[in-house]
Amino acid sequence: MLGRYIFFLYLRVFLVVSLVLLGIVSAYALTDIILVFKDKDPYIALQYLKSLIPTAFLYLSPFISGISLFIVLRYLFSKRIDLVVQSFGISPLRLFISVITFWTFLSLLNLVLSFDFYPKLEKGLYLVERQFKKKK
């Protein structure tokens, strides 16, 4: 029960941190398109973001996982849940096995997608950037 609570807490924090970091990357990319390439075409911007966000998630997912784990552990320590767990003799590994399983699944998913899916997205990013340079 407590392990499920920790897992869902971790998933919520992971989602929020992912949205924040990907939002920052998207905002930077949009300002880069508008200011550097001086292109205001929304189709090009959407096409660029469609390729950039999954690629950014690939590179940011280890940082997102680490930040999320720090936030969850900080929350658990501030509520003294770690003392309750230790007093009942429950292993911390048993509590975090679902989080570790999620990390493993995410790592394997990124590994599988890095062979076919991500190279196509990076090629799309390269083509969009090349179109920008031609317009200049």
How would you characterize the overall build of this protein?
It is a single chain. This protein is an all-alpha fold and 136 residues long. It has five helices and no strands. The chain has helices spanning 2-36, 42-78, 81-87, 92-95, 97-135. The longest helix is centred in the last third of the chain and has 39 residues, at 97-135. The termini are far apart.
Q: Count the strands? A: 0
Computed CA radius of gyration, to the nearest angstrom? 20 Å
Main beta sheet, described? none
Please, what is the oligomeric state? single chain
Helix and strand pattern: HHHHH
Overall 3D geometry? elongated
Q: How much helix is in the residues? A: over 70%
Distance between the termini: 59 Å
Low-pLDDT residue spans: none
Structural class: mainly alpha
Estimated share of beta-strand residues: under 5%
Helices, by number, come to: 5
- Average pLDDT, rounded to a whole number, is 81
